[in-house]
Amino acid sequence: AEAYGRGGDAARADAIRALERALAADPTHVPTLQSLGRLYQAESRWNDLVRMHLAEADATREPARRAAAHARVAEIHERHLGATTEAIAHHLRALTALPTHVPSFHALARLYRRGAMHRELLELHRRMLETATDDGHRVALWLSIASVHEDLLDEPARAIDAYEAVLAIEPKNRVAIASLQRVGDRADRADVVVGAIDREAALEEDPARRVSLLHRAGELLTPTDPHAAVMRFRKVLDIDGAHRPTLASLGRLHHDLGQWDDLMDIHRRELELAEGPTRKALVAATLAGIAQDKL
Fold first, then answer.
1. Cβ(163)–Cβ(146) under 8 Å?
2. Each residue of 9-22: pLDDT tens digit?
3. For residue 277, what are the CA distances in angstroms to 272, 282, 286?
4. Burial class (CB in 10 A: 0-12, 13-18, 19+), 224
5. Which helix (H) or strand (E) holds 231?
């Protein structure tokens, strides 16, 4: 039959009929599938090629082979028949046959994104999570889920859940930590932002960067949890005892909380750092006033 396939139209038609008869007897015979597939492609007989692979999928007992056959059908529908809906359906059938079939997963993700089918894209990733056995794979899937919620659906609360799922697997994942700070701001979740800042600060080796992070955490906490804010500011001063913004913030907090001894300590630090006689005199007067009125 292959030899006839290289001949004229009549010989090629005879070859196709012979191969079709052979496949009717055994739809899974690989050499016959390959030969007939080449002939169908040469004549752009895409519907016949679809039927051939579907017959193979129905006849085989091997999940991987059934999945591959449906994936080929999906590719034909997408590339040659312009039938995206059918392509999606057959990639889904491929995943039903073999839930770990990576080519169909990537093809579906691409088709869903192209068609703005965001909910379907989420379901696809969650479906793959059920079979993922590798931590790296699970992290990648959760990051994709988070991105869909954050960027495509404008659902920052759900994005937070997904990024936190990443950190449950990899507590030091810097992408998730940075993303939680961003999406936490969007969701008006200071607790999420502070938690992510604390994680980043614990990983940060640069003292100046740690100071910046902890100071921001303290500022975020000040309106709702001043005692926690004091703790963050104290950590800043443990790193840089002369950090003026933190001294100012901590001084205001101690004043509002009535922590006069602590406030005196802050002003003493400020006195040591004060430049010029006028500034020194002002800080000294403040210290004297607190000592007289509050202690």
1. yes
2. 788 888 899 998 99
3. 12, 9, 14
4. exposed
5. helix 226-239
